[in-house]
Amino acid sequence: MLVGEQPGDIEDREGVPFVGPAGCDTVLHVPAPAESTIYFEDLVPGRVFELGTLVVDEAEMVAFAERFDPQWYHVDRARAEASTWGRLIASGFFTVSSLMRMYVDAVLSRAAADTSPGMENLRWFAPVYAGDELSAALTVTDAQPSTRSAELGTVFLQWQMHRGTQLVLQMSGRGWFIRRHPLIAPAQPPLSPLAPRG
C-alpha cells in the first residue's frame, strides 16, 4: 500500500473484494501483506541476498548533489577535473540512496518488514564515478525474536557495494523489525525484557 492509500484501495482498483472469501475475521488477522514472501524465519544468520547491479548515471548523480550535497567535487566539473579525483565524484549519500533502491527492489518489496530502528555503521571506502557498474549484496548477521511481541523479530544486517572486486561502501545495523511467519509464530506471549533467554 502506498502513502495516502487506504485499506481496500488496491482491491477496489483491481475489482476484487477487500474481505475475500475467507471472511472478515481471517483477513483482519493476517499479520503481513499477502505478497510477502520473506519472514523472520527466512533470515538465518549467514544468508546472503544478491541485490543486483546498476550503472551510475551522471545526470542523476549531479542532480542529486546539486540538491542535497553541493560540495565542489560533486558539482564543479572543472575544479574536480583539476583535482586528485580527476573528475566529478558521486556524493556518498547518492551511493547510499542507490544501494537503498537496489535493496528495496530485491528484498524489501517482498519482506514482511515493519520498521527499522536505523543504521549503526556506515563507511565509504572509494570514490564512485559516473559510468561505474556497482554490485551490492546483503548479509544477515544476526536474528533475534522480539522480547515485546510474539509477532516480530529483530534482524541485524550488513550491506556491501562493490565496483568489480573493490569495496566502495559498507553499512550495518539493526536493519528491521520484521514479522514472523503467521503459521510459525509462537502462540505464547513474548518474554519479559528482564527474563533470561533459554
Task: Indicate the topology.
Elements: H1 9-14, H2 24-28, E1 48-55, H3 58-68, H4 72-75, H5 77-81, H6 92-106, E2 113-115, E3 118-124, E4 133-145, E5 152-163, E6 166-179
Antiparallel strand pairs: 1-4, 2-6, 3-6, 4-5, 5-6
List keywords for this structure.
single chain; 198 residues; alpha+beta; Thiol Ester Dehydrase, Chain A; 6-stranded antiparallel sheet; 23% helix; elongated
CATH topology of the domain at 43-179: Thiol Ester Dehydrase, Chain A
Briefly, what CATH class of the domain at 43-179? Answer: Alpha Beta
Instruction: Work out the radius of gyration.
Output: 21 Å
**How many beta-strand elements?**
6
SS field, number of helical segments: 6
Strand fraction equals 25-35%
Report on the architecture of this protein.
It is a single chain. The chain is α+β, with helices and mostly antiparallel strands and 198 residues long. It has a domain at 43-179: Roll (Thiol Ester Dehydrase, Chain A). It contains six helices and six strands; from the N terminus they run ααβααααβββββ. It is elongated. The two termini are 38 Å apart.
Short description:
The protein has 198 residues and is α+β, with helices and mostly antiparallel strands.
